[in-house]
Amino acid sequence: MDKLRWGVLGVARIATEKVIPAMQRGELSTVTAIASRDLEKARGAAARLGLPKAYGSYEELLADPDIDAIYNPLPNHLHVPWTIKAAEHGKHVLCEKPIALSAAEARALVAVRDRTGVRIQEAFMIRTHPQWLKVKDLIAGGRIGEVRAVLGAFSYTNRDPANIRNKPEIGGGALFDIGCYLVNTSRFIYGQEPLRVTGAIQRDPDMGTDRLTSVLLDYGKGHAAGTCSTQMVFYQRIQIFGTTGRIELPIPFNAPPDHPSRIIVDTGADLFGSGVTNIDLDICNQYTIQGDRFSQAILNGTDIPCPLEDAVRNMACIDAIFRSAESGRWEVPD
Among 98, 67, 103, 102, which residue's Cα sits nearest to residue 85? Predict the structure, then answer.
């Protein structure tokens, strides 16, 4: 088998506009089918994307013996149940973030993975993007000394009550949607789990979602702080402060597929930028890389880039942040 054969659950915009076109350009991935509860929607998406198969139910796609792996971009509350169903049909699964609505739900996926023998990964595409891998190399090489603080912000504006991101009962809200990136990347940078976390949440008075969430994660040797919002100016940025320098990622999460990503390294020589060096990386598509890295692991029988246990630990941090916002105290991730 030269390429892993993928099927997609649903016609979500992230799938039809970003992930599927990117995966179709991969060396090891090919998307051959898409499913929707509305057959005409599935057929329309298949026609636009040049996919040979369209199904009018998710069950039909999972029953297709010519599908090796499933990409699950369904609304957050459907991630776990349909990932379980896919695994029980013998399909490997790449599931959008957050993979679950709690660490307990994520642990259920570990049990299913171990029982069925399939691979399951949370789709944090940033974890295989060259800019983040380069940042890890720079830190490991001592470019900024010892990391003391990671500061991040991620925000946009969406006040549509019909949008799934604004429905708390199905996993809407800022922390689940985009704050999970701030948690994930700080864990990635420090290479360990936080000892304790605290969070502050402001909820939308009508929709009930967390529209503004700020977090502080204590790693012992350093801190990570971040703010995310679904009702704030469109923005994203990560800064990593070390004892002898600073690294900045201007577009850390939605890295553009059509021009180079930039890493800013600053020695801190002065406040006017004389110590700044820009590192520009080759143009790439993080969704193409994500699909091919997952496919490569399946085809070669090697480890997937991000094991499911990492997803459980990320959800444990998010659980603790929610608990802290209620208790007003530091909480320890379970």
Answer: 67
